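hey so i finally got around to running both of the ones u sent me last week. sorry it took forever, my laptop kept dying halfway thru and i had to restart like 3 times lol. anyway pasting them below in the order u listed, first the sequence line then the structure token line for each. didnt double check formatting much so if smth looks off just lmk and ill redo it

first one:
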Amino acid sequence: MEVRLDFLDLLQPDMSRKILMCLDDISDIVRASAVSRCWQHLVIENGLSKQLCFRSFPHLSRVASIVEVNNSEVNGNKEVACSSSRDSKSAQRDHRVYAYLAHASASFLMRHCISEAIIASSTDNDPEESINNTLDARDLVARRASYWSSKGQFKPDVPETLIYKLVSNLCVVYEVNIRPFQAFFQTGLPIYSAKAVRFRFGHLKHVMDLRSDLVGESHCGSAKETFIWTYTSPEFPMAQENYLQRFKLPEPVLCIGGILQVELLGRVQRQETDALFYICVSHVQVIGRPLSPAFDVEILEPSWDFILKCNHQAKTSNQLSMLENEPRTILPTYLGRRVIELRQIVNMLRGNVVQGEDYAWAEDEDDR
């Protein structure tokens, strides 16, 4: 009988490990693990797929345990496998999950990632100038200008914040795009941009209903008591120009918990009627890869570590659901605005055109 030798066995384990740790692509690590049993053992036992994920997304170090969920029903129940120890089976499980996570973070569909607007630090006229308006890319909705406006301030250095919920508890975010608002109905067509912008990603401190529990500007002011921010971007200068400005993050960011805060730093434009500084935003857009339903997280209190949940069988359904739901989930506020638009169209067809609605702030400028 022919004796077959694995030439890789001739390498010292330390040398093989050093070679494998030079790989920076998960597909290369998976292929290497298929070359020989020796390398497969090194890849799994040394957690190389996990280390690769940690290099790309350092906040994964807060994973307390891993749960694998199997869609195949056994006696009517889903199979669940949990890992928090370092035995052989858990090492294999970690390899599967982290290898899949690295693959998903680079291959799942890119899309718009904002699910809903949560709260703004201030709003001049609510709901006419609500943060919800920033979800719509159109200039006009129901024959009115669509934008969010802060309250006016005497000092130009007073910041504002906008907080959003993303479509998934785990999203790989590449860029955030913002379009400042140009008041085409005011003299000189002023643009109410900020001087600079900064982004924070994180999660809620405690389980709560975002719609009912976060109401009013006082809650946005206490963001430190409400949210945990796991990533803060550098400041990006914002141009005082009316176009969708692209702010690409230095590296892709894994948002754990699905919360985004947009910090608008500094004001550049006074309103002529009251000599106050305002910041106004027409549209906010987040581009990234949602990782649900293949991945989810459960935040643990009070450590703020989290359980990473993985469903390998959700891979195909992820791609299909992203296509079906593009560009974003329809919100109740969006439906309400569509109803208003349809009513106005019906009125126009009947000849009942309401005068004085075009191109106006929610209130007359003199009332600011």
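and the second one:
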Amino acid sequence: MTMMNAAGRAVAALGVGIVAVGHWFWAYQSHSHLPRARLLAVNSEVELYVGIFLIGVGVHALASRYWFREPNPPAQSSTREPQ
């Protein structure tokens, strides 16, 4: 159950990072002629770097969960070996 929560947090960090970078691109690159109401007074570079950081956090957490684990954990035998 704990690993599923970690995977959920990784996906959430990845999603928030993608949304932040997408918002940065939409707000500061493609629609520069539109007036923008700023919900949070965040510098555009800070918003971009926070989004990139969160994408990195999500990717790292997913990689550590799925790619860096032991591929074949030792199976527990139901039969006892003679001593």
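quick thing i noticed on the 2nd:
DSSP finds two helices and no strands in the chain.
anyway thats it, ttyl
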